């Protein structure tokens, strides 16, 4: 009898161990499966002519600086990007009901959305090492921390109010291949820290605009425009002369 109890205990322990091992192996097996023939340098569309739509937006966190002499705006943000990758799909029932993965963003293709108005080349793209979230239906979400450094030619909009535009779009793709769209019509300011001693962020309005270039007739290059309105906290005579 004691032998039977001991044998039963071993079987239960072995079963639990096997279940745990299977769960760990399932995620590893899933990663091996989806990356077996994956090429992160290839636009992830099943058909060459298909358009990849990228939902995008920014969540402002703080105004670091606005230099009125160089007219450069430095703003901390989260930059949202969401798109569909036709080559990152799987059936959860075949992989222990795993419905999503969190992966280093360096493993997957990412849209080359860039700040067209960047003040320097090291401020063109987000470089944050944050993970992406990949859903089993191919949806990919990336929300990197991004310090925007943008040329900001100030346009006066009344006493002590100034406006400039940040433009974000694909660096190499036309709208036919990569189509940026606003994630939402309203810019989320709920996480904004109003701590800059000189400038107050009044509002950010966004819209989508298309640009056409002489090099590429018939091809539009859409971009998202963020119209930033700022108020000078302490009006200065020197600034009145600068702008």
From TrEMBL:
Residues 1-21 form the signal peptide. Residues 28-233 form the Neurotransmitter-gated ion-channel ligand-binding domain. It is a multi-pass membrane protein. SUPFAM superfamilies: Nicotinic receptor ligand binding domain-like (SSF63712). The keyword Cell membrane applies. GO terms for cellular component: postsynaptic membrane. Keywords: Cell membrane, Ion channel, Ion transport, Ligand-gated ion channel, Membrane, Receptor, Signal, Synapse, Transmembrane, Transport. PANTHER family: NEUROTRANSMITTER GATED ION CHANNEL (PTHR18945). This is Acetylcholine receptor subunit alpha-type like protein. It comes from Argiope bruennichi (Wasp spider).
